[in-house]
TrEMBL record:
Keyword Glycoprotein: no
InterPro entries: WD40/YVTN_repeat-like_dom_sf, WD40_PAC1, WD40_repeat_CS, WD40_repeat_dom_sf, WD40_rpt
Protein name according to UniProt: WD40 repeat domain-containing protein
Keyword Acetylation: no
Pfam families associated with the record: WD40
Extent of the WD repeats: 98-139, 182-224, 225-266
SMART domains assigned: WD40
Keywords for the protein's UniProt record, in alphabetical order: Repeat, WD repeat
Length: 302
């Protein structure tokens, strides 16, 4: 596999293995700090300079499936029984607790321009919360099975939902009306991302192991790529938009060139990567972060 001058190969800078079960989600509040959410019921904060825990560690009553930063001070924590906890990061205190959902909270999205938090559960229910008052604005039973991915358009005016029924649904963010839906992946849509600098190019990853690129203006599929041997669980673009990464149940992470859709690098077990399913990735100026069923958090850098 080739690399380019703009995207040199990654190598592992740091590995943290202190969770006792799978890590399902990541959040990055500030540089050199990452928060992990695990099936061991712990939410932990890590100092990437020392590789040790710092400041913020909480034990939940059930496995933690999703976390989302709300503004700079709050962390929204979704559990596998549907409980939603809002935690003040600095005081380490819970400020809100909700039991609206009754099944696992697989996905969350905070939209700062709208002051809303979107949550999606295993039964295909979507909820919209006002993050100023913490009132629930709307609760929609979509009937789409597990909602694994929620993203918004660059202008925050549209919402994209990936469901287990294989469809991508598009909503407005004024009254949350569904304005379009289309079939995208056999057995489910797991990951969504908008191409940087574009308002109409959508990238999706599915349980079928494929990546698909969609032109939303023309309502057509541009390309289908057989990306992984098993389900694609996460997609993350580089900060400059020149590359993107995909994570899969096949234990690997692939780095792709955005312009050509060519694979630049594969991070896998034999090169020090994960030994089990890779559940989540985040790409920041500090590097690429990955979390896995193998209980490891890995920090990759160029």
């Amino acid at each position: 596999m080739s690399t380019t001058d703009s995207t040199p190969p990654f190598h592992k800078k740091l590995e943290i293995r202190q969770h006792s079960m799978a890590i399902y989600d990541l959040a990055i509040p500030v540089t050199d700090t990452v928060i992990t959410a695990s099936a061991d019921c712990f939410i932990a904060t890590w100092d990437l300079l020392s590789g040790t825990q710092k400041g913020f560690t909480i034990k939940a009553d059930f496995p933690v499936y999703s976390i989302e930063l709300v503004e700079k001070d709050l962390l929204s924590v979704g559990l596998n029984n549907g409980d939603l906890h809002i935690i003040d990061i600095h005081s380490k205190k819970e400020i809100r607790f909700f039991k609206k959902h009754t099944s696992a909270l697989f996905s969350q999205l905070f939209i700062p321009q709208k002051s809303v938090l979107i949550t999606g559960d295993a039964d295909g229910n979507m909820a919209v919360w006002n993050t100023k008052s913490w009132e629930i604005l709307i609760y929609l039973p979509l009937g789409c099975g597990k909602i694994r991915s929620i993203i918004s358009s660059p202008d925050s005016e549209q919402l994209f939902i990936g469901g287990q029924d294989g469809k991508i649904r598009i909503f407005t963010t004024d009254f949350y009306n569904e304005i379009d839906s289309f079939y995208a992946h056999k057995d489910g849509v797991n990951a969504l991302a908008i191409f940087p600098g574009s308002s109409s190019l959508l990238l999706s990853g599915g349980k079928d192991g494929y990546l698909r690129i969609w032109d939303l203006d023309k309502n057509e599929k541009i390309k289908a790529l057989p990306a992984h041997n098993y389900a694609v669980y996460a997609i993350a673009f580089s900060p400059d938009g020149k590359a993107f990464a995909t994570a899969s149940r096949d234990k690997s992470i692939k780095i792709w060139d955005t312009a050509s859709y060519q694979v630049l690098q594969k991070l896998e077990t034999k090169t020090g990567g994960h030994s089990h399913s890779v559940n989540k990735i985040k790409w920041t100026l500090s590097g690429l972060f990955s979390a896995s069923d193998d209980r490891r958090l890995i920090h990759w850098v160029h």
